[in-house]
Amino acid sequence: MRVLLVEDDRRIADDVERALQASGYVVETAGEGEDAWFRGDTEDYAAVILDLGLPRMDGLSVLKRWRAADRRMPVLILTARGSWAERVDGIDAGADDYLPKPFHMEELLSRLRAIIRRSAGAASSLVSIGDVTVDDRQMRVSVRGVPVALSALEYRVVAYLVLHRGRVVPQHELEEAVYGHDEDHDSNALEVLMGRVRRKLGVPVIGTRRGFGYIVEEPGS
User: Fold this and answer.
1) What pTM did the predictor assign?
2) What are the beta bridge partners of residue 6?
3) How far is CA 195 from CA 48, 109, 133, 165, 191, in A?
4) Pick from 84, 104, 119: which residue ends a domain?
5) Contact assessment for residue 79 and residue 101, using Cβ atoms and an 8 Å cutoff
6) Are residues 43 and 76 in the same domain?
7) pLDDT, tens digit (0-9, with 9 covering 90-100), for 4-14
């Protein structure tokens, strides 16, 4: 899943980016407000981690402009501004959660997972579709309770489709969620990857809509 990290402190940005990548996310970074606003206004992200104290345009203004344009991706505010009044301002502007600095990386990852789940209507870190269960905390997929050995890319495919269950996910959207813009891959890489995923799962949970994309059906649909 693609996450936009907006942080002007290079040290913090590097630490968070490494932690996100280790947790299976595709990460894009912005170090100032105008670039962040443009990316969030023109690209689709599973979530945004947004600092408030940014050069060129402050984070609160960025968030307000996104929400005014009906950009609905979940946003976790990450900032040194820790007063209750500033937290209220952030939530009122449309933030989904707020984490003041300094912070523990595990808490940031936990809050990020939570806002992504809530945006997709999932309340738990465990989401089951038929025989397949995805645990976004452990980054693990199991079939009938047996863990399936998946690569990072294979996990991203399953996790994204299960998170967006019941909806046909276009191929280009899934490619961006799995590879991001910065990873080189062949034109048929997703099809090859999907073939491996289906073989490893061994159950027909991922469907294809020719000319449209891929879907994980809701149970009973």
Assistant:
1) 0.82
2) 30, 50
3) 30, 30, 19, 19, 6
4) 119
5) yes
6) yes
7) 999 999 999 99
